[in-house]
């Protein structure tokens, strides 16, 4: 994934979510946050996801796509929209409090909630002030999904979603910091959203088919 810094406000003012993520062409057109720019970016061959942070855009490509081929077009589209003054996101009146399997915006999971326990409040505070800024620097974000049996449940977004070192980020970065400051924390578990689960299932089926074909080839030989 590549992070772009357009020197321009990306997210609409007053948005409660810290990010918007588009994982399919359909999500760029549907309420609550249609984005003509995201639609054009996802139409580029090889681009698989568009992630909007407060002041940055992260673009994710397919494994077989070459940045040398797609980066110029991505950069050109972003520059064109920013220079034209066109609105990057067009909020609709529909409630933006949910996110579907195709991406979108979610409420700020790190926001203060009076129902939170003292431990959860400390976890959120640490994630918000120490961990989220570092992850946003890399073009991603983090969602707090819960605290169960000593485990902090998190979902990585944007560049961190597909990063090869996402497990290392969780274990060596986030987990070690949370365990250092909060003794009740025994570890961190990554929670996959519906899009990631579907992608993993499809990849597993693809691997099975490859194994079957190799088996047939070996038998034939």
What does this protein structure show overall?
With 221 residues, this protein is an alpha+beta fold. It is 44% helix and 19% strand. It has a five-stranded antiparallel β-sheet with strand order 1-4-3-2-5. The protein has a three-stranded mixed β-sheet with strand order 6-7-8. Strand 6 and strand 7 form a beta hairpin. The protein starts with a strand and ends with a helix. Mean pLDDT is 79; it is low at 94-102.
Draw up the topology in text.
Elements (H helix, E strand, L loop, with lengths): L1 E3 L15 E3 L2 H5 L6 H7 L4 E6 L4 E5 L5 H18 L18 E3 L12 H20 L2 E9 L2 E8 H4 L3 H16 L5 E4 L3 H27 L1
Parallel strand pairs: 7-8
Antiparallel strand pairs: 1-4, 2-3, 2-5, 3-4, 6-7
Helical coverage, percent range: 40-55%
* Gap between N and C termini: 41 Å
Number of helices: 7
How is the main sheet built? Answer: 5 strands, antiparallel
Strand/helix succession = EEHHEEHEHEEHHEH
Q: Strand portion, in percent? A: 15-25%
Mean pLDDT: 79
Shape: globular
Strand segment tally: 8
SS class = alpha+beta
Low-confidence stretches: 94-102
What topology, given as strand order, has the largest sheet?
A: 1-4-3-2-5
C-alpha Rg (nearest Å)? 19 Å
């Amino acid at each position: 994934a590549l992070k772009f810094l357009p020197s321009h406000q990306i997210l609409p003012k007053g948005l409660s979510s810290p990010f918007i993520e588009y994982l399919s062409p359909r999500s760029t057109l549907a309420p609550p946050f249609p984005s003509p720019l995201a639609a054009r970016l996802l139409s580029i061959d090889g681009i698989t996801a568009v992630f909007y942070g407060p002041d940055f855009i992260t673009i994710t490509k397919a494994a077989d796509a070459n940045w040398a081929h797609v980066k110029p077009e991505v950069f050109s589209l972003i520059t064109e929209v920013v220079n034209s003054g066109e609105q990057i996101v067009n909020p609709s009146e529909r409630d933006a409090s949910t996110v579907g399997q195709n991406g979108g915006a979610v409420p700020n999971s790190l926001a203060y909630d009076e129902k939170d326990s003292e431990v959860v409040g400390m976890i959120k505070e640490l994630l918000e002030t120490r961990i989220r800024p570092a992850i946003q620097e890399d073009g991603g974000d983090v969602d707090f999904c819960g605290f169960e049996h000593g485990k902090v449940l998190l979902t990585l977004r944007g560049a961190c979603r597909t990063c090869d070192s996402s497990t290392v980020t969780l274990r060596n970065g986030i987990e070690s910091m949370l365990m250092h400051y909060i003794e009740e924390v025994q570890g961190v578990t990554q929670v996959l959203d519906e899009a990631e689960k579907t992608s993993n299932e499809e990849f597993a089926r693809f691997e099975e088919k490859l194994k079957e074909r190799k088996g047939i080839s070996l038998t034939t030989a």
